[in-house]
Amino acid sequence: MKYNLPILAATAALLVGTAPMAALAQDMPGEGTTIRMGQATWDTGWFHAEIYSQLLEELGYEVDGPITLDNPPFYQSVAQGDLDLWVNGWFPLHDTYRPVFENGAELVGAVAKGGALEGYLVDAAAVEEFGIKTLADFKRDEVKEAFDRNGDGLADLVACPPGWGCEVNIEHHMDAYGLREHVNPIKAGYAASMADAVAAFQNGEHILFYTWTPNWTVNELVPGKHVMWIEVPEVNLPDMSLADAATMEGIEGCVADPCTLGFPANDIVPVANSAFLDENPAVEALLQEVAIPLSAIFEQNAAMNAGEDDIEMQASEWIKQNRESVDGWLEAARAAAE
Asked: Domains in the chain, ordered, with CATH?
């Protein structure tokens, strides 16, 4: 058999030349694609958003943003395809936005499942002094007076800014428990309002506030030490199908066990445009794979509150420390793109 040596040589050269290109395409399935990413207005969600952003860049994607948005405009934008994703969904808290996004976007994977708590806290000294157990105790004149920091005759509650999912539940609670004439929900910027509450606590004043975990607040004001989770009089939610999840056992620093916090425990999850996921199977696979411990988010939030605000560096360091898991996630994403 005779071989055409020039043709064989040309073919070999072509194969050698394309091999690195094929490997590159496999390693960098996002090459040439830009992801328009959003992030929440609460800065406690920025750390894991940055982790996801850096992982997407390792797959070759160019990340535009993240752009910071309130819940309503994000869910509308991701449904319309103006944004591709964020990793700051809180469900079931954000179920109220499902009618806005469910026809164009979807939940995929989970940053952290369960353990993301919400509720009301009171300084421990006030719990002991006044025997505070539930929000209903704020109907008592002596309790209202002790928590009235602006002199309007109402107990001041650090609540949630307009547009946050927690604002819906807090407003519902104000009516459900008949607290409109007893409690003043403060809806200014949350971080500034909480900083003011922490300063008041340090000055010996009584404080009432809403918070969630993971959050720097429970590092600054530790439940069971500085403050206590208090209960609601009874579970009353806009969506009562979630009622069973609003009472939990083993909540450290609660006035009772089980503890009726009045908010269901949440999963922190990515939400992405469905058409974008169809076109980018590597992204969908990555979102399905990644999981970040709440303890890691809590640790970064505490450091950020202490002034260590280089989130890009903190995310990069976390990725480096968890390289084995990260490489497994990236391998799954690359395999999905083949």
From this structure: 33-115+267-337 (3.40.190.10), 118-264 (3.40.190.100)
pLDDT in tens, 85-112: 999 999 988 988 999 999 999 999 999 9
Tokens encoding 43: 């800065």
Return the closest-CA partner of residue 260 out of 245, 278, 273, 241.
Answer: 245
**Cβ(122)–Cβ(224) under 8 Å?**
no
Q: Which backbone phi and psi does 178 adopt, to 5 degrees?
A: 65, 45
What pTM was estimated for this model as a whole?
0.74
The answer to whether the CB of 227 falls within 8 A of the CB of 121 is yes
